[in-house]
UniProtKB/TrEMBL annotation:
<protein>
    <submittedName>
        <fullName>L-1,2-propanediol oxidoreductase</fullName>
        <ecNumber>1.1.1.77</ecNumber>
    </submittedName>
</protein>
<keyword id="KW-0560">Oxidoreductase</keyword>
<dbReference type="GO" id="GO:0008912">
    <property type="term" value="F:lactaldehyde reductase activity"/>
</dbReference>
């Protein structure tokens, strides 16, 4: 069985990534974004 994976052209990560992502989403005219994280990052307070 063949699997297909399509990756986005821009990936943001690291401190301040969410702030940079906001500008990128607006610049591209998007209205929504998918942000993927895990429970450890939530527990550490990196994301809320």
């Amino acid at each position: 069985m063949a699997n297909r994976m399509i990756l986005n052209e821009t990936a943001w990560f690291g401190r301040g990534a969410v702030d940079a992502l906001t500008d990128e989403v607006t610049r591209r005219g998007y209205h929504k974004a998918l942000i993927v994280t895990d429970k450890t990052l939530v527990q550490c307070g990196v994301v809320d």
